[in-house]
Design a protein that fits this description.
homodimer, 482 residues, alpha/beta, seven-stranded mixed β-sheet, transferase (chains A, B), pyridoxal phosphate (chains A, B), aminotransferase (chains A, B), PyrdxlP-dep_Trfase_small (chains A, B), Aminotransferase_I/II_large (chains A, B)
C-alpha cells in the first residue's frame, strides 16, 4: 500500500493554524538571501534587512556578559576552581555560578529537574517578583518553560475543551495566540485595540465582544492581554489595567497576561505594572481571580531568544486544577536547565556593589537607550510617508504602521490573488531587501492595512532602512496612486 | 463572580492523560526526602534511592568533558581568543566551538534559529546518520527539538484528528506515548510485547490488533516502536525489524521509531540498527514508507537530560505535509540552541587523532561498561527473589521484572483501593527508600504485575539496593505469602 498520510488526512486543526511571523515573506527572504550569496549582482541590494521578528541577537545585539559568564561556568563547573578562571571571568560571575550550582540537586546541570523547574531558581524568581511588585510571590506558583510559547500552549490545552470555548484576544495580536487556539480547537474571540487612541484597550469593547460570543453559544474562558503590546507597542496605563482586572473578576475569566516585554518601555510617561501587582493592589487575592503571567528570556534588553528560557506565574487556581497543570508540565519532563538558569539571572541581575554591576548597567542601558532611539527614528520616518500613519512605540520591539493603500494597488494585489498588505511587503522585500510582516498575520480592522516592523536592526543600519523604505514607498505610490 | 476554572470545566483530555514516571510514587519519594532532611531518624534509611527515571546525572553520572567544554565556549565565545583559555580547555574543544560558531548565522548563540534548527548543525547530524547507516540522510529532514518528547507530541498532533484515529503502541510502553495520544484525543491501540520471549515483538500480534481496531471503526495511522525498549530493555533483531517495516509499508502506517537508546546496548549478541537503515536496505525509499526516527541527548552514555536536546528525522512525507510539520515547529520558534549544539556533538564526538579522543573514549566506555555491569547485577538479584522473574536488559536503561504477587497481597491492596503493583512499590519506598515505578504506569497484560527499575544508581550503591530490596521482599512475602 502507498503511504497514507496526505494533507487531506492530517489533523485539520494543524491545517487551520497560521503562523505569519515565519510565513511566506520570511521564506521568500531566505530564498533571496541564498540567491544574493550565490550571485551578488542579482538584486539591487547586498543584504536582507530583517525587521520581521523579535530576534535581537540575530541582528548583532550583544549578549549581556555577566549572564553568559555564569552560563559558561554552569556548563563546565570543572573550571570553577582553576586559577586561570579568575583571569577569564568576573569574580561575581564565579560566585553566582557557585551559588546556582548549590541550588541544583547534586549540582547536576545535566539532569532533568523538578517538572516546574529547579526549586532554588524558582525561589530567586519569586523573590524578584516580590521586589518588583511589592506583593508576595510563591516559588510553587512558578512553572519554568522553554520560552513563553510552551507556557501559552499549556494554558490553552488546559482551558479549551472544544470549539465552543472561546479565548478573548486582542486584534492585532501576536500570532502565537491564534495559532495555539487553532491547534487546540478553540475559538478566538477578537477584541479590537483602538488605533486612534494609540492602540487603546477599551473595557466596553471587551464587554461587547464577550456578549456577542455568548450569544453565539461560546463560553469565553480567558482574556489574553499583551502588555507592552505586540505588535502594537503600547504600554497600558494602571487605571486601564484595573478596569481589565475588574472585568475578568466579574466575568470569572482567566487573565492570561503576556508580560514578556516588561523591561522594554521607552517613554518616560509610561511604566510597566504587572497585572498581579495591579490585582493585589485592588485587594484581589488567590480566591478572587485566575491570573497567569508569562515572562521570557527572549525579550527585554537581554534578547536571549535562542536559550528558550521563561516562566509562567500561575495564581488563583484550586489545588486540584494545579495538579493537572503540574501533570502537563511533567509530560515534557522539564524545561532546559540553561534557560532556567538564565531566567533566574534576568530576574536577578548584578546589584550595586557587585563587581560586574557597572559594566552590566552600561550594557543594559546602552541597548535600551539605543532601542528607544531606533523606535523614534523609525516612527518618524513612517509618519513622513504618504498615506502611512504610525503610533508611538511606547514599549516592546515593534511598530505597526497603518498604510492607506491606493485602490489601484489593492486591485493589483487582487489580480495576483494576494492580500494587499502582503502585496506591499513582497514588493518591498524584492526591491529593497527589507522584511516586514503583513498586518493580516496579526489581524486588523477589516479594510485597513498594516505591517509590523521591528526596531531591532542595529542602529547604524537604520538610516539605510529609512532611505530605502522612503525611496521604495515613493516609487510604489507613483505607480499606484489613485 | 467567583473564578470559574475547576476540574469539572477543564479539558477532559488533560484529565484523561496519565504520566506515571512523575506520578504518585515520585511525589511520595520527594515528600520522604524532605522529611529525612528535617528529621534523619524518621525512617530506617538515610537517603532515597531513585530508580524511577532515566536521569543519569541526577544520580551522579558525570557529563562528558569534551561536550561540556564546547558548550561553555559557545555560551561565552569572548574567551575563545584568550591565552588562559588554552590552559583551561582542550585544543579540540576550542577548535570545535569555533567551527560550530561559524555554522551559526552571525555566530549568535542567543538568536532564534531556523525552525528546524541551525542548518550547519543539521548538516553534521545528517552526515553522522549517513556514517551510522550507510544510506544518505538529508539535513532538511532533520527537525531539532527540546528532547524527543516535543517531537513525539508534534507527530501525534499532526496525525490524530479524533478518537477514531488510532496509534499502535507497545504494551508495556513509555507513558509519553499514552499521555500524548490522550492529550491529542486519539486512541491508543495496544500491541503486547511477549514477555516469555524476552519482550518479543510479533508481527502476528500487530496484525491481530490492527484488525481488531479496524473492526471497532478505528483508523490506525501509525505504529510506535521503541528500540531498544523502554521500559522493557530488549533490542530488536534485524529480521524482526524488517518484518515490522514490511507491515508498516503494507498497511500504509507511519513508523514512529523511538531510537533514543541507540547507544545503550549491553550484550555482544545484539546490535542497534536504525529503522531507516533497515528500510533502505530492503530497497524502500521516500515513496514507500513514512518513517520518523526520534533521537535525544538525554540518553546514551551522555545522559544530558537537562539540556533538552534532540531531533527527529522525518522521511517519506509529501512536500505539502512537510510544510505543516514545519509550521508546527515554527509555532514554538525553535528548540534551545545549547541543546542543538549538544545534539550535533553526541552525533559527532571526538575522532581518532583528536586531542580529546582518548579521554573521551575512556569516559564513554567507563559509563557504558558500568551500566552493563549494573544491569546484570540487578537482573540477577531480581531473578533470585521469590516470585519474581526478570528478562535481560539487552539495552536502554531499565529492567521490567514481573512479580507474581500473592493473593493476600492483592487483597490487601484492594482493601486500600490501590493497584497491587503500586501497593508493592509504595511499601518498598516507605521501608527502604527505593523508588520503582509500578508497571500499571506502562501497561501490562491484565492480571500480571511488574515494576520498572532503572540501572542508573551509581555502581557503589547497587549492593545496598540489592540488599535492601532482598530483605524487604522477604519480609513482604513473609507477610503476604498465600
Amino acid at each position: 500500500m502507498a503511504p497514507q498520510v496526505t494533507v487531506d488526512s492530517i489533523n485539520p486543526k494543524v491545517i487551520d493554524c497560521q503562523y505569519a511571523v515565519r510565513g511566506e515573506i520570511v521564506i521568500l527572504a531566505q530564498k533571496l538571501q541564498q540567491e544574493i550569496q550565490a550571485k551578488p549582482e542579482a538584486y539591487p541590494f547586498q543584504e536582507i534587512l530583517y525587521c520581521n521578528i523579535g530576534n535581537p541577537q540575530s541582528l548583532g545585539q550583544k549578549s549581556i556578559t555577566f549572564f553568559r559568564e555564569v552560563l559558561a561556568l554552569c556548563d563546565h563547573p570543572a573550571i570553577l576552581a582553576k586559577s586561570e578562571t579568575q583571569a577569564l571571568f568576573s569574580a561575581d560571575s564565579i560566585e553566582r555560578a557557585r551559588k546556582i550550582l548549590d541550588q541544583i540537586p547534586g549540582r547536576a546541570t545535566g539532569a532533568y529537574s523538578h517538572s516546574q523547574g529547579i526549586k532554588g531558581l524558582r525561589d530567586t524568581i519569586a523573590a524578584a517578583i516580590e521586589a518588583r511588585d511589592g506583593f508576595p510571590a510563591d516559588p510553587n506558583d512558578i512553572f519554568m518553560t522553554d520560552g513563553a510559547s510552551p507556557a501559552v500552549h499549556m494554558m490553552m490545552q488546559l482551558l479549551i475543551r472544544s470549539e465552543k470555548d472561546g479565548i478573548l484576544c486582542p486584534i492585532p495580536q501576536y500570532p502565537l495566540y491564534s495559532a495555539s487556539i487553532a491547534l487546540h480547537g478553540g475559538t478566538l474571540v477578537p477584541y479590537y485595540l483602538d488605533e486612534a487612541t494609540g492602540w487603546g484597550l477599551e473595557v466596553s469593547e471587551l464587554k461587547k465582544q464577550l456578549q456577542e460570543a455568548k450569544s453565539n453559544g461560546i463560553t469565553v474562558r480567558a482574556l489574553v492581554v499583551i502588555n507592552p503590546g505586540n505588535p502594537t507597542g503600547q504600554v497600558l496605563a494602571e487605571e486601564n489595567q484595573k478596569a481589565i482586572v475588574e472585568f475578568c473578576k466579574e466575568e470569572g475569566l482567566v487573565l492570561l497576561a503576556d508580560e514578556v516585554y516588561q523591561e522594554n518601555v521607552y517613554v518616560p510617561e509610561k511604566k510597566f505594572h504587572s497585572f498581579k501587582k495591579v490585582a493585589r493592589s485592588m485587594g484581589y487575592g488567590e480566591k478572587d481571580i485566575h491570573l497567569v503571567s508569562f515572562q521570557s528570556v527572549s525579550k527585554g534588553y537581554y534578547g536571549e531568544c535562542g536559550k528558550r528560557g521563561g516562566y509562567m506565574e500561575v495564581t488563583g487556581f484550586g489545588a486540584d486544577v494545579r495538579e493537572h497543570i503540574y501533570k502537563l508540565a511533567s509530560v515534557n519532563l522539564c524545561s532546559n536547565i540553561t534557560g532556567q538558569i538564565l531566567a533566574s539571572l534576568v530576574m536577578s541581575p548584578p546589584k550595586v556593589g557587585d563587581k560586574s554591576y557597572e559594566s552590566y548597567i552600561a550594557e543594559r542601558d546602552g541597548i535600551l537607550s539605543s532601542l528607544a532611539r531606533r523606535a523614534k527614528t523609525l516612527e518618524d520616518a513612517f509618519n513622513k510617508l504618504e498615506g502611512i500613519t504610525c503610533n508611538k512605540a511606547e514599549g516592546a520591539m515593534y511598530l505597526f504602521p497603518r498604510i492607506n493603500l491606493p485602490k489601484k494597488a489593492i486591485k493589483a494585489a487582487e489580480e495576483v490573488k494576494t492580500a494587499p498588505d502582503l502585496f506591499y511587503c513582497r514588493r518591498l522585500l524584492n526591491e529593497t531587501g527589507i522584511v516586514f510582516v503583513p498586518g493580516s498575520g496579526f489581524g486588523q480592522v477589516p479594510g485597513t492595512w498594516h505591517f509590523r516592523c521591528t526596531i531591532l536592526p542595529q542602529e547604524e543600519k537604520i538610516p539605510a532602512i529609512v532611505t530605502r523604505l522612503t525611496d521604495f514607498h515613493k516609487r510604489f505610490m507613483d505607480e499606484f496612486r489613485d
